[in-house]
Amino acid sequence: MDGVFFAVLLFLVHPAAAVSTDEPRNGACRDNREEFGFALIGHDYKSFHADNFGRCFFKCSIEEICQSITFLWNSKECKMKNETKRSRPADFVENSAATYMENSFRAKKGSKALVPGTSCKDILESGDAQGDGECWIDPTASGDPFRVYCDMVTDGGGWLLITQYIEGNPSLLVQLNSYRQILPKYTINEHYLLRSGFNQLKQDMGFSQIRFYCFKKSVGRVFHIMTSNDSKGNDVVKFFYNFQRFTSSLWFFLAPSR
């Protein structure tokens, strides 16, 4: 039987890679510098009193979760951040009594459960995307991240794989309402996300576009469309709210035929 599959991916409009291994730290030179007179507002996960900027940065450099620091000179306060100026540019502001610096030794966003993104698009916009592949996300900052497949290249990148079906590839049928349980199963065919799960995903991520990619092997034909990011496109997304289920699994959309 011809291999025909149906894949659906979501483009996340709010700010918001294969899983990487630990990065080498043996004598690597820092590729960033202190930025005097600037601060990243918010996104603190820890703060403490530090006698000097060096102590503040050293503490950050030994914690993979620490993405950057803002050191306040007047109060000698070290603010350790779980975001960077690239991931949250709107919160990067001038402050004559502060110094900002990114942690060169940090774990890249989405590369580990320790530092999940809120979505594929969030990881892409942070500058940490390493191409298509597996990433860690936690859309609601629940503290319970999970793995998903992200397309970081096609149509601007930032797409989350939610559905894929391969005809003639039988497997155990599973139907679930939880997108947290379905999305990590992208390597298994015939897993279905029910309507309430899709609606919850929409609520938690706020996506506004859907992409469809279909391939028929026997003729080498590709059918690839994307909904527009406007009222008409939103009507299409709303239509799928009424679908009873969505499949989730195998990522053959990266086959050489693409």
TrEMBL record:
Q: Which residues form the Apple domain?
A: 29-105
Span of domain Fibrinogen C-terminal: 111-164
Q: Which Gene3D superfamilies match?
A: Gamma Fibrinogen, chain A, domain 1, Hepatocyte Growth Factor
> Which of UniProt's keywords are assigned here?
Calcium, Disulfide bond, Lectin, Metal-binding, Signal
Pfam entry (one)? Fibrinogen_C
* Domain of life (superkingdom): Eukaryota
Look up the signal peptide feature and give its range: 1-18
Q: Which NCBIfam families match?
A: GGGWT_bact
Under PANTHER family, the record lists: INTELECTIN (PTHR16146), INTELECTIN-1A-RELATED (PTHR16146:SF46)
Q: What is this protein called?
A: Fibrinogen C-terminal domain-containing protein
Organism equals: Porites evermanni
